Amino acid sequence: MRRLLINAAIVVVILSAPIALFFMGWGLLQVYHQMGMIAFLGACVSYFIGSLGLASLVDKGQARQNPPPHDQ
Questions:
Q1: Is the entire prediction scored with pTM above 0.70?
Q2: Which residues cross the membrane (predicted)?
Q3: pLDDT digits 0-9 by tens, 15-65
Q4: At what angle do helices 2-35 and 37-65 cross, to 10 degrees?
Q5: Which candidate, 23, 25, 13, 19, places its Cα nearest to that of 54?
Q6: How far apart are CA 35 and CA 28, in angstroms?
Q7: Backbone angles phi, psi at 3, to 5 degrees
Q8: Of residues 58, 56, 33, 32, the one with CA closest to residue 44
Q9: Helix (H) or strand (E) holding 36
């Protein structure tokens, strides 16, 4: 049962990623058309910083699950 839930979560993430990327790109184009280049670059930087923060959280979670072996 646990394996089934893990597989279902993986499928949901894989299916939702292209949809999320589409809407992110569409939103960036809307910002560019309505506010100009400076706002577009600001939105790109914001997405980049957000993705770095998300990657950091994932890395911390993996480090907690797999702690390094202690030296003796």
A1: no
A2: 7-29, 35-58
A3: 887 888 888 888 878 877 888 878 778 877 887 887 777 777 777 776 677
A4: 160
A5: 13
A6: 10
A7: -65, -40
A8: 32
A9: none
